[in-house]
Amino acid sequence: MALQWMILTYIVAAEAAIAFILTLPSPKAIKTTLVSLTSLVLQPAMFVVPFAAFQLLDIYWKAEHRLMCSGDTCTASERDRYEKTMFKAQRNVILCFSACLLYWCIYRVCKYHKEIQSMEEVEKRYKEE
Question: Which label site among 11, 33, 65, 108 has the fewest CB atoms less than 10 Å from its CB?
Answer without folding.
Answer: 65
